[in-house]
Amino acid sequence: MSWQAVARKEFRDAIRSRWLHGSTLFFALFLGGAAALFFGVLLGPDSRQVSNLFGFFASLGVFSFSFPGLLALVLGFISLSTSYGSITEERESGSVKLLLSLPNSRLDVVVGKFLGRSAVVVAALLVGFFAAFVVLLVTGTRLELGSFVPQIALTALLGAAFVSVGLCLSALADSNREATLATMGLYLVFAVLWGSISEGIPKLLNYAAEQVGMNVANVTRAQIGVFLKYLNPLKTYETLAAQLYYGPAQARLVSTTFGERAVLAPILEGTLPFYFSGWFLFLVLVAWIVLPAAVGYWAFERADL
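and the corresponding structure tokens:
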């Protein structure tokens, strides 16, 4: 039963530190405010349907924007901020030794902290979606619950994934300063650099092939680049959210460049390869929850406290 006690302690600490209050207020204003702006001001009665905000995707050639993508960026940052100090702060204060003496095993501590901090993020997120839901009702917006409700569940999973990543960094770091720097660096990779890396690796593979008198076909390069993008939990979530409102083929193209779209669009109209399927992307998102937490436990189990 001790992991439950750790999880409850994490949740109570978040309430006392007012972190839960602040993140709840933020999500209520962000999601409720966006819904009020779109459905109460910008859109006419005939355009008031959930997909026009929570399924909003726009591509302007080299630049693309989506509301699910913006929500994922914000949620990723808040989730990492909630969890990156979960172990390092207690190691620096010495309270982790007291925590382990209660008795709680190190596995109890990792599981309890993951669940407790995930509950903090998900609770704040759900209040935000509830605020948006109230606005949808008041403005007479068509709800499209078959898409909207699964999107809420997906968003909660994304929050848990980033809590798991932050917990992993906290377990691997020797100090809170290290955990802070690692979190900032990793968030930069997820939010900014991942796309360039995904597009650069196929070009590098093609360059290496050319050195031995071969080449990588355009279609293969595009498939590798898009597949690598899907490994980013932000893009995984964005693509799965798009699939809730549009067809699978159209959803696979929301994170692509103009060139990738031109090459892959005819292929995606047919049968999707398994590594582009919705179930595969869902497993990628689940893996971002399980694997970082497992690595965090492995590191914490071997740490000299």
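(Above: one complete record from the training split.) The chain has 14 helices and two strands.
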